[in-house]
From TrEMBL:
Protein name: Transporter
Keyword Membrane among record annotations: yes
Keywords attached to this entry: Membrane, Symport, Transmembrane, Transmembrane helix, Transport
Subcellular location: Membrane
Family: Belongs to the sodium:neurotransmitter symporter (SNF) (TC 2.A.22) family.
UniProt xrefs under PROSITE patterns: NA_NEUROTRAN_SYMP_1, NA_NEUROTRAN_SYMP_3
UniProt-listed InterPro entries: Na/ntran_symport, SNS_sf, YocR/YhdH-like
UniProt membrane topology term: Multi-pass membrane protein
Gene Ontology CC entries for this record: membrane
Single GO MF annotation: symporter activity
Lineage, opening ranks: Bacteria, Bacillati, Actinomycetota, Coriobacteriia, Eggerthellales
Amino acid sequence: MSSTIAERSAWSGRWAFILAGAASAVGLGNMWRFPYLAAKYGGGTFILTYLVLVFTFGATLLLLETALGRKTGLSAIGAFKKFGKKFAFIGVLASAVPFIITPYYSIIGGWVTKYTAAYLLNGPAALSDGGGFFTSFITSPFESFLWMAIFMIVVFVVVGMGVEGGIEKANLFMMPALIIMAVGIAIYTLTMPGALDGVAYYLLPDPSKFSPELLIGALGQMFYSLSLAMGIMITYGSYLDRKEKLTSSVANIGMFDLGVSVLAGLMIVPAAFVAMGSGEAVAAGSGPSLMFITLPKVFESMGGAVATVLGFLFFLLVLFAALTSAISLVETCVSIIMDGAGFSRKRAFAIVIAVVVVAGVFINLGYNALSFVQPLGEGSSILDLFDFISNSVMMPIVALLTCVFVGWIIKPQTLIDEVEVAGPFKLKGAWTVMVKYIAPVLVVIILVAYVGAQFGIFKF
């Protein structure tokens, strides 16, 4: 039987949607990339730039996608197709993104799950060996698959319980817990001798550090962090009641993302400053190396039970962030198949599980049996290729097509009318200019910069 709008899941209220949107936005990028970029690009200067971008460019695209989903009551493919079959290809491209990201995100989620457990089972000393523990784990033909499977099972169980019964309840627990742990760890870090020097390094603006590279770094971080151009916010918007105000909801999601990102920096930068003598320790590396090699050294330097407790709590916090993002990715995949194929939720969910597991196993083989496959050059992995295709290529292209579609084809007024169903839209003039002119240019900058960086043309 075909899925219809009447059969769709729905949020229990506005705050359920805000928490879900925030949970999707708050992910691994907040934890391991934002602190590195802030440390590299002048601390407060980067944070201020990021703040401006979140509440201009970021909020514009968040509102656009959410309004499009709510207006049509459908996920990405159906939402674009509703305005004409010839536009369905934009939805198809957007829908491909979560199917590409979810498997490799689950692999990294498995790494975080392993480290969370390892602080209790192995102790901090075992994890702070300069990368040996991490390398032996991810290249293991058994362990890396086991922890990936554990992470996937948790995500599948939550999504399998439905939108209100599973996703809402999980977010209601994990998001407050994440905030509390982040605040707690940050406060503890700030009490360490010498930590205030790290805080000054992190928070005080250094205008001399402002550069095109800083702007592109902040632009890319904001774009990828807010779960834009991957169908998630269109799907989540389709579950939202029309009486709920979209403008304030989107602003709250942006505030959550910014707040957690800044807190992540407060946890990491001062601690690295104390342990290693300077914030440059954070700026020296990003991504997995910061999370799984540098930070365990920082925690180990704290010594005793503190190292164990703080390390465990930090990785538990990161695990919650990874889970909430993975849940939103899987839910989006389920909704896409329901709308696109007219399948029941149960059948669509079974297909998503099969695709994610098979793709996850294949990508994970890139670290052991298929490690000879280095698609992006020496030292790269299959995971790197999937990440490059989805993040650096497809997402900016989808965002650009979406802006052109709304700005020049169906016209901004179509979605302005949807936003104004629940109240006045005071910034509709500015929003229209952003959608039609500014956002497309910024998205093209992201696309050119990140593809260029992959092939060594640019460096930032």
